[in-house]
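Continuing the batch. This is chain 6 of the set; chains 1 through 5 are on the previous pages. Same settings as before, nothing changed between runs. Recording input and output for traceability.
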Amino acid sequence: MWTKLVPVTALIAAVTLTGATAHADPAAHTEPTAPIGGEALGSRGLVAPTGVKKPPKSKATSYVVADADTGEVLAAKDAHGRYLPASTLKTLTAVTLIPKLDKNRKIRPSHNACNQEGSAVGLSPKTTYKVDDLFKALMMSSGNDAAMALAETNGSLAQTMNDMNAEARRLQAYDTVAKTPSGLDKPGQSSSAYDLALIARAGLANADFRRYISTKIAKFPAPKGYYEISNHNKLLWRYNGMIGVKNGWTSKAQASFVGAATRGGHTIVVSIMRHEGGFWDEVTQLLDWGFSVRGKVTPVGRLVDPLPATALAGPGQQQPSTAPGASVAPNAAASPGISVTPAAQPPLLDTAASKQTDSTKTVGSLVIGGGLLFGLIWVGYGIRRKRSHSRS
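Output for chain 6:
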């Protein structure tokens, strides 16, 4: 009698296993589970050192002030909150592609590249450009057309997106998901103030990157002759020691910025996300504060170093003990010398909603699987009773 139920039991097992794995995240076992850079950076509120004046107020939903030389994070607010990056994502495009592309290579952009929406440098399919020109257009004029032209020069858009996301993982920028090379809004795209500071720091180590971001005005090829392009970073003209980096804006992302300045042989990085606009004076004040406290306070966290190549080998890799703030308690406990100011959780990017939806689907699958399991057991029980009565 029990042998007749073996196929039903096998089917039940198969259904149960399928329901448990249908919505599993294939990368979940490879990513760490605590905030990258330190526990305090998992807070949604202001995290600042004690014993010195607090950082200047900012209307940005999220920001980071860090010492680029040592990697010490001096203050932060919602450092790992994931938001739309807008054109600040071009820093990752540059960091990824500068080592891959010969800057003296000459190309003619496709019509697709020339017709990109949003900010553009004005590429023409009839004009020949050096890759060096395109990087200037990318980082100075925030050219979305230049971003696409560089992506296509790298082989294809798909290849470039794979390369950019691989570079983000190498840098341990786990909050960053690139969907476009330009930063144009796209579902699932995200970054964080922590990641923007991390990526900018990596870029500053490259001489060509520094040259592109610090150039104020440059000649740019045109179908006939040249025209001038200027850097969108206003602080290059207004702040003493400003190196540059990148600003961005879309109506959904609002204003974002990551910048670096050097004074007295020391470099401070400031990144902000989701600002309503008019942030230049606030960034200036945050930079001044960073220079005034660096080397004098207990850091609230750290900009981590890139992963070694061996750690990127595959799913079995050993991961660092720190990770994105998305899975951390809203207000992490602070260490001595660090002040954590609680804050109401801000509106996060759609990725948080996506994760919630995926979790709901997983629960739904388990409920459906459980219902099916109960139904199969009931059917099996009915078959047994019917056969038992027949034999009687």
